Amino acid sequence: MAEAKRDVAAEGLRRAYSAGDVLSLKRDICEFDGQWLEAVGKPELKGTWCIGGLPKNGKTSFTMQLAKYLTKWHLVAYDSIEEGVSASFAEALRRCRMDEVKASRFIVLNNEDIKDIERRLSKRKSPKIVIIDSIQFLGLNTETYLRWKKRFSEKLFIYVTHLAGNYPEGRTALKIWRDSDVVIKVEGFRAYPTSRYGGGKTITVSEEKAAMFEITNH
Questions:
Q1: How far apart are CA 140 and CA 136, in angstroms?
Q2: Domain with 126 in it
């Protein structure tokens, strides 16, 4: 076995893992509970998630609810690119009572661009979870997305995207959507998750608004 490992090292190859090696690796697994467990399962908090929806369907409210839940485990940074720190964004914070969350667990970034984000994430004790709202307003391209995925591989990026019909708007957004471990489509104030960690149950963002949406659109 030792000789085989030396041969691999000498050839400049990456280590190959046995099934037992993979199963014994330590991972940052979150013990989700309640509706989040039923929706997403028990996820590893690294990699890529994507949330998509049409305007005024509850996308921001759902993303904020998810952000608040994730602060139980790590510092979450919400880059509000599309709305900045406008009155509408402040209202989303108010609805979710984000003022209840300690500043050490949740921060709002006011329209930080790609260079700003990279500088921030390169710092010691930088946020573990980063929400980008939205892909389109950031102007993110596929090259930068892949660079972040490799450079910041221990962080969780949650990307918010506009939809054009049933699919994300733009090539980069579509690639992220397809790559993501967790994909959540928000429509009519209900969130419909697809997760590699299990789950799959719908989350209602707002009972009142979901009911109103159904009345208006049927």
A1: 7
A2: 44-217
Structural domain includes residue 147: yes
| CATH number, domain with residue 193 | 3.40.50.300
Is 15 among the domain residues?
no
Whether a cis peptide bond, with omega within 30° of 0, leads into 86 is no
Q: How confident is the model at residue 14 (pLDDT cuts 50, 70, 90)?
A: confident
User: How much is the pLDDT for 105?
Assistant: 98
Residue 14 lies in a domain: no
Q: What is the pLDDT averaged over residues 44-72?
A: 97
The reply to whether 33 falls in a domain is no
pLDDT above 90 (res 23): no
The count of structural domains within the chain is 1
Distance of CA 40 to the CA centre of its chain: 12
Q: Is pLDDT of 15 > 70? A: yes
- pTM for the whole thing? 0.90
